[in-house]
């Protein structure tokens, strides 16, 4: 094992895949070449949870997974095979389920005097001294009949709540409810009246105040102990943007673990945004790499045409699917004025108190402060501003635009007041700091909800571009931009993570790779959608509810590759609910959703799917180039690559929960490059209609790259070098290549070369005279034993004769001989 992983493998633990199942898979996983297993959250969660992010007790390892004994057994097995463990930890929130969350139970029983009260981010004053619990199916008056007292607890359906000491004997139900430290209410009131910080808009997850040193110590004691005892070697920090002080938290975490483990953060970087250099981490979990890798395989010219065809097909208005910027802007306003009302109200109350205090004493109208909060939040171009560099995000221009929403200039001065508070200007007291932190926390919730969970489902010219951390308005990435990113990573964050598929990606990498091919076939896809749309409409019960759904459905079916009705239907129902145009999670339209289900059954998952299969077969060669190219780039670029469970082979999955199904692994024997066993959820499905060769080819490539990383850490890890290689000739721009070398260790060098935009290559007549300047020496192809090349101009037609990618290795001896020859 190494201090910094050479590669990690993500496992989704759940009751159906506990520690013992993970331990059984260890021999196979070790044979792939990874150095660490990355485990989804392992602390005690809501019983039956399939993901573990709803923690109820951070002091205990989850019994449903096998408890701490099971985790230690897994660690021993992993260590015996040379593997370490990385844990996914959730510092921002816990499950607001009192019957399972003992700390919250005590707060509800004892009120603000409870020793656990400081754990949770609650505004007691706003709640009139009570915590609002939005758990009732209807208004309180309509639900009184569902309430009953049993012993020292109040029962309501599956919910249990503690009774304040001395109140269990009260016979009048109204009097008993009034006497508690909490207020039960209709779930819909959470939108406007909630007085505790939550995870995004999920009221079932209550914010935890880990900025308090005592709370940090109490909630991290078990994780820190596991690290210090050598059970765990790395940590992934979930949603750091939800924390009041990410920098301070990460500094405290690094100190508590003694600097003994690799720590990465699930930080989404927007555009050219950089990870704060003062964070005590190795880097991000890798969404910044995902966006750039995917972008290499998107044809910008073809995407422009595809977008034009999309607008024609759907009739999308600019602010509702027609333009990315306008769609994202409208989505932000919708979320800030509807879903985050309680959060903006809390900021307004804080701003009022701050503006009325001190020597300045500005008596801004509450409505003006509220409007200023909203107008500034929607103009934050990244997930959140930080203490350092905040003015670069909350710019004077953003303030000017926010003021334009006011009719009276004097009232617009509220914008300057709120901006100063958000930037930490004009005071440094506890309330000033609280406002700055809460503004930033709300900003991250707004960005996630409006972009990832709304705009991504409303603007869909090319679905593969709508991924976590993605930029759907300009998703294509050229070689120069990619090389610049890699150079920065190698210099500043060499141990940062890289990913292609995660438990949060909306489509697995292989699904995205297939959909991205459409950027090279815009005209053909437009013709296909017109033809298939007519055919689907003629089927009984198969009329598409709307053109936007049809466009989304057929792209999803093409990327998915299989007519699995249930999985496709579930993903599309989630898509239309998230889009919130015709139906939603809170206001479902049963008739529309039934029309969606009927359309899926008759269209994408019905007889017309055969036409989709024909279209897919026509582009399979290009899908292969994208899949293998993206995989090889991710596994060999700067950073620590992660392989998601099953993704060493062809892995086809849609948005959660589809991508979180229990993994399946061979229980005996090492991984074989020619193994045809499917390891993911596809194992139980009919795959006869799909070529098996890509799965085996991807496995062979993955194993070769991972074992090379394991055996030659100096070439890929911190301290190694990265250099672009540029081909010359008519198709030079369609090859991406780079050189990785060890700076000190005598481990040789590696060249990665991949084909991008393969359809454009085919239409231009192939590689022709295009050549790659291979550094001097003797190079062997790790993907094709027996193939050897000499340094100098290498014809790409020869290099890519059998496959669209190449992984060339020059050992240290060859490097030394090449250097000697040059000196001579």
**Estimated share of beta-strand residues:** 5-15%
Measured as a percent range, the helix fraction is 40-55%
- Number of beta strands: 24
Residue-averaged pLDDT, rounded?
92
Report the total helices: 30
In whole angstroms, how far apart are the ends?
Answer: 41 Å
Biggest sheet features? 8 strands, parallel
Q: Any low-confidence stretches, pLDDT <50, length ≥5?
A: 537-542, 674-691
Q: Structural class, please?
A: alpha/beta
Coarse shape: globular
Radius of gyration: 28 Å
| Biggest sheet: strand arrangement | 16-15-14-5-2-1-18-17
Summarize the structure.
With 824 residues, the protein is of the alpha/beta class. Helices cover 44% and strands 14% of the residues.
Structure description:
It is a single chain. This protein is an alpha/beta fold. Helices cover 44% and strands 14% of the residues. The strands form six sheets. It has an eight-stranded parallel sheet. It is globular. The model is unreliable at 537-542 and 674-691 (pLDDT under 50).
Descriptive labels:
14% strand, 24 strands, alpha/beta, 8-stranded parallel sheet, 824 residues, single chain, 6-stranded antiparallel sheet
């Amino acid at each position: 094992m190494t201090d910094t992983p050479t590669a990690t493998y993500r496992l989704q633990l759940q009751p159906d895949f506990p520690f013992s199942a993970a331990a059984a898979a260890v021999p196979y996983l070790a044979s792939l070449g990874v150095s660490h297993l990355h485990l989804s959250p392992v602390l005690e969660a809501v019983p039956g949870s399939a993901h573990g992010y709803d923690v109820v007790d951070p002091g205990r390892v989850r019994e449903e997974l096998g408890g701490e004994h099971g985790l230690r057994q897994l660690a021993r097995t992993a260590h015996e095979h040379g593997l370490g463990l990385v844990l996914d930890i959730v510092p921002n929130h816990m499950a607001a389920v009192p019957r399972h969350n003992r700390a919250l139970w005590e707060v509800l029983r004892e009120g603000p005097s409870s020793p656990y009260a400081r754990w949770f981010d609650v505004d007691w004053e706003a709640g009139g001294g009570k915590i609002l619990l939005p758990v009732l199916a209807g208004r309180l008056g309509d639900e009184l009949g569902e309430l009953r007292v049993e012993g020292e607890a109040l029962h309501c359906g599956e919910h249990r709540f503690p009774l304040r000491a001395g109140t269990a004997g009260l016979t009048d139900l109204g009097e008993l409810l009034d006497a508690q430290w909490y207020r039960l209410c209709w779930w819909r009131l959470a939108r406007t009246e909630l007085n505790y910080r939550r995870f995004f808009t999920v009221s079932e997850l209550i914010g935890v105040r880990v900025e308090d040193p005592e709370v940090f110590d109490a909630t991290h004691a078990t994780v820190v102990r596991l690290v210090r005892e050598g059970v765990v070697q790395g940590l992934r920090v979930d949603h750091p943007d939800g924390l009041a002080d990410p920098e301070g938290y990460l500094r405290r975490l690094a100190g508590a673990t003694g600097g003994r483990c690799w720590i990465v953060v699930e930080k989404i970087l927007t555009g050219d945004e950089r990870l704060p250099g003062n964070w005590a981490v190795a880097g991000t979990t890798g969404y910044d790499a995902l966006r750039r890798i995917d972008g290499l395989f998107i044809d910008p010219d073809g995407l422009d045409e595809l977008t034009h065809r999309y607008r024609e097909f759907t009739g999308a208005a600019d602010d509702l699917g027609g333009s990315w910027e306008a769609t994202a802007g409208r989505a932000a306003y919708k979320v800030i004025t509807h879903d985050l009302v309680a959060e903006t109200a809390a900021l307004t109350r804080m701003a009022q108190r701050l503006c009325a205090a001190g020597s300045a004493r500005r008596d801004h109208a509450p409505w003006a402060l509220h409007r200023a909060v909203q107008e500034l939040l929607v103009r934050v171009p990244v997930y959140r501003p930080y203490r350092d560099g905040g003015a670069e995000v909350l710019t004077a221009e953003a303030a000017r635009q926010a003021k334009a929403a006011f009719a009276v200039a004097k009232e617009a001065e509220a914008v300057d007041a709120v901006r100063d508070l958000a930037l930490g200007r004009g005071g440094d007291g506890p309330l000033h700091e609280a406002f700055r932190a809460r503004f930033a926390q709300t900003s991250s919730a707004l960005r996630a909800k409006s972009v990832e969970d709304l705009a991504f489902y409303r603007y869909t010219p090319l679905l593969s571009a709508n991924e976590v951390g993605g930029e759907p308005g300009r998703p294509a990435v050229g070689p120069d931009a990619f090389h610049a990113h890699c150079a920065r990573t190698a210099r500043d964050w060499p141990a940062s993570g890289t990913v292609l598929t995660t438990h949060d990606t909306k489509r697995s990498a292989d699904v995205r790779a297939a959909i991205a091919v459409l950027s090279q076939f815009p005209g053909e896809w437009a013709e296909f959608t017109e033809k298939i749309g007519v055919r689907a409409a003629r089927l009984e019960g198969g009329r598409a509810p709307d053109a936007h759904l049809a466009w989304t459905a057929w792209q999803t079916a093409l990327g998915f590759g299989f007519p699995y009705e249930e999985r496709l239907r579930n993903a599309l129902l989630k898509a239309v609910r998230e889009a919130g145009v015709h139906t939603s999670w809170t206001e479902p339209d049963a008739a529309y959703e039934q029309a969606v289900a009927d359309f899926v059954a008759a269209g994408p998952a019905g007889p017309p799917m055969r036409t989709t299969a024909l279209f897919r077969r026509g582009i399979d060669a290009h899908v292969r180039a994208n899949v293998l190219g993206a995989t090889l780039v991710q596994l060999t670029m700067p950073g620590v690559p992660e392989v998601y469970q099953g993704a060493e082979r062809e892995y086809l999955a849609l948005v959660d929960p589809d991508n979180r199904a229990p993994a399946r692994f061979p229980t005996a024997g090492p991984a074989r490059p020619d193994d045809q066993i499917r390891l993911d959820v596809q194992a139980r499905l009919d795959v006869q209609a799909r070529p098996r060769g890509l799965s085996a080819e991807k496995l062979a490539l993955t194993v070769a790259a991972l074992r090379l990383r394991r055996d030659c850490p100096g070439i890929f890890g911190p301290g190694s070098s990265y250099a672009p290689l540029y081909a010359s000739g008519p198709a030079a721009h369609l090859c991406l290549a780079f050189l990785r070398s060890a700076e000190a260790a005598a481990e040789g060098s590696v060249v990665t070369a991949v084909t991008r935009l393969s359809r454009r290559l085919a239409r231009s007549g192939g590689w022709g005279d295009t050549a790659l300047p291979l550094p001097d020496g003797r190079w062997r192809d790790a993907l094709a034993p027996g193939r050897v090349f000499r340094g100098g101009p290498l014809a790409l037609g020869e290099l890519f004769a059998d496959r669209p990618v190449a992984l060339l290795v020059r050992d240290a001896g060859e490097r030394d001989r090449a250097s000697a020859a040059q000196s001579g």
